[in-house]
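quick one, 83 residues, struct below
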Amino acid sequence: MLRATVTGRVWSTKRLPEMPAGTILEVVIDGSTSRLLAFDPLGCGEGEQVVIATGSVAAGWFPGKAPPIDALIVASIDEGAKS
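---
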């Protein structure tokens, strides 16, 4: 799992029908300059610290056939949490 900070939202007018309801957010992995897009079923906002699951674990969280998702926000880190 990765700890990251939400830096923005990706707006899209078209998406695959296999995609579940939710938002795609851009995040920066803490301690690096690496950015990635993560699917957000929780409703997180810009500046929020989050925990991300990646790979087959992310896609496997959804019931039925796995959607084309390889980064999933699984938790929002409470303000003031220490690493």
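The two ends are 14 Å apart (CA to CA).
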